């Protein structure tokens, strides 16, 4: 929660929805193919170290598996977030149990469905068995309308198919379209596609956003959140999203540049606001790669430099920041944000708001 305080004693509360939060399981006990599993989490940790302010660095051992309690402390208690949305990826070629810890996050979502929103994932290469598991996930976790409304799609994930390694799949394939239709039948209408920086050892080309374009135009009733906004292919993303109005910009990864690369972050925001406008941009931290506390603190202070304001004809006003922080995600998932604000739960009692004098 962010609290604006004016000189006359008035207060305005601004909730925060972080659309991209993980509880992962990358400790050694879960490594199926150790070289690949270690390389994956090492790559995550390199991203963590490269953009995180020094005082927020997590030690490597904790980073591999921090668990639900540490996530609650960093994201909710100290990180100003009111609603966290999980984005799982399984990586079962690398890990024994799913890397994206749906089971652990799912328990939190069942216990407090106003704070933790869980989605699942699918892979069209799983065929009918994948559809069965998808249906089971929805049946198990949809205790509120905003639960299990989305799936995370990891098109570069590796899979063993009959002893042959498949190094990814396409969202515009016949098999993927069948899964999209099946998702619709289950009430899933938000697809969150990882289209951004690669993670070793996956293939960069498997994260190209061209297949999102074909899927979005084929299913205009579905909302496609391109998480990581296609970086480093920002031009490809904005030129696609300006045409497909059901494509949204997920700022996870992009938001982390705000501290060490503020000019680059300003360029990103100017491009997004120019092409998409303020109603299709979502705040995300990608925790635990980055901590939402410092991202949100710097975002609330951030202004687009005057030369970019003039060139692009855009501003990052307080009203636009509200859209990015919670309004857009609340509409997309159908979250009753007022019920979240009114909750008098243990998180509310312990959470430390960000106070800003205006």
Strand content: 5-15%
- Give the biggest beta sheet: 6 strands, parallel
Order of helices and strands: EEEHHHEHEEHEEEHEHEHEHHEHHHHHE
| Helix-strand makeup class | alpha/beta
Strand order of the largest sheet: 6-7-10-11-12-13
Low-confidence segments, given as residue ranges, are none
Radius of gyration: 19 Å
- The global form is globular
Mean pLDDT: 95
Which helices and strands appear, and what pairs or packs with what?
Elements: E1 2-5, E2 11-14, E3 17-21, H1 34-51, H2 60-64, H3 67-77, E4 83-86, H4 102-111, E5 116-117, E6 120-121, H5 127-141, E7 150-153, E8 159-161, E9 164-166, H6 174-185, E10 190-194, H7 210-218, E11 223-227, H8 234-241, E12 247-250, H9 257-260, H10 262-275, E13 281-282, H11 292-301, H12 306-312, H13 318-333, H14 337-342, H15 346-350, E14 354-357
Parallel strand pairs: 1-14, 3-4, 4-5, 6-7, 7-10, 10-11, 11-12, 12-13
Antiparallel strand pairs: 1-2, 8-9
Report what the structure shows.
- By secondary structure, this protein is of the alpha/beta class.
- It is built from 15 helices and 14 strands.
- A six-stranded parallel beta sheet has the order 6-7-10-11-12-13, sandwiched between helices. Strands 2-1-14 form a three-stranded mixed beta sheet. A three-stranded parallel beta sheet has the order 3-4-5.
- Helix 7 links the parallel strand 10 and strand 11.
- Helix 8 packs parallel to helix 10.
- The protein is globular and about 70 Å long.
- The two termini are 16 Å apart.
């Amino acid at each position: 929660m962010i609290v604006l305080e004016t000189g006359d004693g008035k207060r305005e509360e601004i909730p925060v929805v972080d659309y991209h939060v993980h509880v992962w399981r990358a400790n050694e006990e879960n490594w199926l193919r150790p070289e690949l599993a270690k390389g994956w989490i090492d790559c995550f940790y390199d991203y963590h170290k490269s953009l995180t302010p020094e005082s927020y660095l997590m030690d490597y051992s904790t980073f591999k598996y921090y668990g639900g309690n540490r996530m609650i402390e960093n994201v909710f208690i100290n990180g100003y977030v009111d609603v966290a949305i999980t984005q799982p990826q399984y990586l079962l070629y690398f890990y024994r149990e799913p890397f994206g810890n749906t089971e652990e996050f799912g328990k939190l979502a069942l216990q407090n469905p106003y704070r933790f929103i869980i989605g699942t994932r699918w892979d069209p290469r799983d065929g009918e068995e994948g559809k069965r598991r998808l249906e089971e996930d929805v049946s198990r976790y949809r205790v509120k309308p905003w639960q299990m409304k989305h799936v995370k799609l990891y098109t570069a994930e590796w899979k063993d198919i009959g002893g042959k390694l498949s190094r990814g799949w396409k969202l515009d394939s016949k098999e993927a379209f069948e899964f999209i239709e099946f998702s619709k039948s289950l009430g899933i209408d938000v697809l969150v596609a990882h289209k951004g920086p690669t993670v070793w050892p996956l293939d960069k080309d498997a994260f190209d956003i061209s297949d999102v374009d074909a899927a979005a135009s084929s299913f205009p009733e579905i909302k496609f959140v391109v998480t990581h906004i296609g970086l480093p292919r920002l031009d490809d993303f904005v030129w696609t999203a300006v045409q497909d109005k059901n494509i949204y910009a997920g700022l996870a990864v992009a938001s982390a540049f705000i501290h060490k690369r503020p000019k680059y972050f300003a360029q990103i925001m100017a491009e997004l606001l120019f092409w998409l406008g303020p109603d299709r941009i979502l705040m995300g931290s990608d925790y635990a790669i980055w901590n939402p506390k410092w991202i949100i603190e710097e975002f609330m202070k951030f202004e687009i430099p005057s030369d970019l304001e003039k060139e692009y004809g855009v501003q990052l006003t307080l009203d636009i920041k509200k859209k990015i922080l919670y309004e857009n995600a609340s509409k997309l998932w159908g979250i009753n944000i007022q019920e979240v604000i009114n909750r008098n739960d243990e998180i509310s009692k312990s959470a430390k708001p960000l106070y800003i004098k205006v």
